[in-house]
Design a protein that fits this description.
The structure holds two protein chains of two kinds. By secondary structure, chain A is mainly alpha-helical. Chain A is built from nine helices and no strands. Chain A is flat. The model of chain A has no long low-confidence stretch (mean pLDDT about 90). Classes of the chains: A mainly alpha, B mainly alpha.
């Protein structure tokens, strides 16, 4: 333990970075998932094809490849664009934080697309008809019937998507984001204790996963409280 | 910015030279992971707390931490421990390939055992009761009734896990292994052409994923041949 003495604050700030990446990618992941699901459910053939392409590509490619491609690719593209305006610019870099966040959000968003689509289709037509028979307006049906039923169906897989996101944040250390794995690498450089340091990283991630799992369980209980009371 | 087609033609064969290593990693860890998963499954459904709890803890730890961290603990971390350096297993942990296979197997085993458990829990209780009425013992019921039905139920999810495993093999490139991703990263470092190389590699992985999926649905169709209704 005394081995870690100088490193607690570094690991703490590394964990803060993990949490930031997680929250930012969570928002983006929901947006990508909803857009993807809306596109797949739309009547437009071309839009459906594009959404299918999105899910096939991001579910069939290793995560690390997407991260590397987005990081190095965006740097090249941005450099090229900015040279059009100012030929003196040598190199434009994209912060690893954003390249990585967008990359993992795109990956997990492709899984969320299927979750949201399935949840939307899983709403029982009978519920909608009953609500309409009771004289609810379209908006009321959407908010009081569709959303609560979708929520219940989507929550368990959505919890898994959140766990994938938190675990994928570790991959962003490969492009130099100063999160916990990156901190561990520095700590190993001075202490020469790789096992200890990586175990600390593992415990930090286990903590994050536990918090997410417990939150999802609580949300599930809340989402199902009307269903159970029978 | 240009898209250099000749570079793709030149580098794709180089990357394909790593496909053998990718398949070795995939095949070995899928096999060892499945064995581990079956052991964990048996521990979980044994009904004995001293078998069930360790299995649950194992699954919780390995599903709750990133595979990259697991790979690093085994490859970079284990040499710190003296008893591992002196054990008979040291030749495995000294070798990046051995470490990658061990890490991938331990990781996929945790996921697959939960998938198998889902299959076992999905077996219709009526079938088991019928087996009991016919005088089959618990072991016989497990082998002749639960196993075939659970296999069929678990196969689609198992297929997805194999595809995840294929994608995880790319992480072996972080511990110096020259699989397809490792080769691609070396080429990008030399040529600085990430688009051409990473996109062609992504397409190679997608083709592999596609064939794996086809292969799994063939097995699914084969196992489900008795369940089809005649129209």
């Amino acid at each position: 333990m005394e081995l870690l003495s100088g490193w607690w604050d570094d690991f703490f700030w590394g964990s803060v970075v993990v949490a930031q990446v997680f929250l930012a990618s969570l928002v983006l992941m929901v947006i990508f998932g909803l857009i993807g699901a809306a596109a797949k459910l739309s009547g437009n053939r071309i839009v459906q094809k594009i959404a299918n392409g999105y899910t096939v590509v991001f579910r069939g490619t290793p995560e690390i490849l997407v991260i590397l491609l987005l990081y190095f690719g965006s740097a090249i593209t941005l450099t090229w664009i900015s040279r059009l305006f100012n030929p003196d610019i040598k190199f434009v870099d994209v912060p690893p934080f954003w390249a990585g966040t967008v990359a993992i959000a795109l990956i997990v968003g492709s899984y969320a697309t299927e979750t949201f689509r399935g949840a939307f289709l899983g709403v029982r037509p009978g519920s909608i008809e009953a609500a309409k028979a009771l004289g609810m307006s379209g908006l009321q049906v959407f908010f009081y019937i569709r959303i609560p039923e979708m929520w219940r169906l989507a929550l368990p897989p959505f919890g898994n998507h959140m766990l994938s996101l938190i675990k994928d944040t570790a991959l962003i250390s490969i492009i130099g984001l100063n999160e916990t794995l990156f901190v561990a690498k520095q700590a190993i450089g001075t202490t020469g204790k790789p096992f200890t340091m990586y175990i600390v990283v593992g415990l930090i991630y286990l903590g994050f996963s536990t918090v997410i799992t417990l939150t999802v369980m609580a949300l599930e209980r809340y989402g199902n409280h009307t269903v159970r009371a029978r | 910015m240009s898209f250099d087609l000749s570079l793709i033609v030149e580098t794709v064969p180089k990357m394909l030279a790593g496909v053998g290593l990718t398949f070795q990693l995939l095949g070995l860890s899928a096999f060892l992971g499945l064995i581990l998963a079956i052991v964990l499954l048996l521990m979980r459904i044994s009904g004995k707390w001293y078998l069930d709890w360790p299995a649950q803890l194992y699954i919780y730890v390995f599903r709750g931490t990133p595979i990259l961290v697991q790979i690093f603990i085994i490859y970079y971390g284990f040499p710190q421990l003296e008893f591992i350096r002196e054990s008979v297993l040291w030749p495995i942990f000294r070798d990046p390939f051995g470490c990658a296979v061990v890490a991938l197997s331990l990781n996929t085993g945790a996921y697959v055992s939960e998938i198998l458990r889902g299959g076992v829990l999905g077996v219709d209780r009526g079938v088991l009761e019928a087996g009991e009425a016919l005088g089959l013992s618990t072991t016989q019921r497990f082998i002749y009734l639960t196993t075939p039905i659970a296999t069929r139920l678990a196969l689609p999810a198992y297929g997805n896990d194999i595809i995840s495993l294929l994608k995880s093999t790319a992480l072996a490139s972080t511990i110096t292994l020259m699989d397809m991703t490792g080769i691609a990263r070396t080429i990008v470092a030399q040529t600085y052409a990430p688009y051409e190389i990473f996109i062609s590699l992504a397409i190679i992985y997608m083709i592999l994923t596609f064939f794996l999926q086809k292969f799994i649905s063939l097995i699914e169709a084969y196992l489900g041949r008795y369940t089809k209704r005649e129209s």
